[in-house]
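Researcher: Let's do a round of design. I'm pasting the structure tokens now; please hold your answer until I've finished.
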């Protein structure tokens, strides 16, 4: 009977998965930055690209701290998220709607990474790999900060602008007025 894999085996496997995911993200983030119209959003993607390059290096340090070879293993999960992001970029959206959608794509990636690092840290701690846990925690903190930054940009104006653009066609109706509340113009108010 072959020897069963241990949590250590699973841990190394997940590290390889994350290493590959980070590398895929270093190629995807410049595309998100390029597609963004809002200068602060572009800046957010660019600065997270720099951090992501640091995440690749930090994982190399983690492998070294465990005396393991630095190696990646194709991450299907992040590949799918990146693929969905590409489909969004192919859509014909107005600028501010595209920005809102780029944030949505970016946040899917951040949450995926946060889940992966959360598990890696818990496993590293459980097995007493304190150096690895410390390094992984630094990366998790940056993922969380990147996610918060994207939320702040969305909620600080981008979603509002996109929503305003979406409702421009019925701008004659005051916000909050029911469209079918019996106002005499409501029946034929030019809604499409
Ligand atoms: Fe990362
Ligand atoms: Fe990230």
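Researcher: That's everything. Go ahead.
Model: Designed sequence:
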């Amino acid at each position: 009977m072959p020897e069963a894999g241990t949590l250590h085996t699973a841990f190394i496997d997940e590290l390889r998965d994350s290493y590959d995911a980070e590398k895929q993200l270093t190629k995807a983030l410049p595309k998100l930055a390029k597609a963004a119209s809002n200068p602060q959003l572009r800046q957010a993607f660019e600065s997270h690209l720099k951090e992501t390059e640091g995440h690749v290096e930090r994982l190399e340090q983690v492998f070294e701290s465990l005396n393991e070879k630095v190696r990646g293993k194709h991450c299907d999960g992040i590949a799918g998220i990146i693929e969905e992001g590409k489909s969004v970029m192919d859509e014909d959206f107005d600028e501010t709607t595209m920005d809102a959608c780029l944030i949505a794509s970016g946040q899917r990636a951040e949450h995926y990474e946060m889940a992966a690092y959360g598990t890696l840290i818990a496993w590293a701690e459980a097995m007493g790999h304190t150096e690895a846990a410390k390094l992984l925690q630094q990366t998790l903190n940056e993922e969380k900060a990147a996610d918060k930054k994207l939320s702040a940009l969305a909620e600080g104006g981008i979603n509002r602008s996109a929503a305003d653009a979406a409702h421009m066609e019925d701008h004659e109706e005051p916000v909050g007025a029911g469209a079918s509340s019996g106002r005499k113009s409501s029946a034929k108010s030019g809604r499409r």
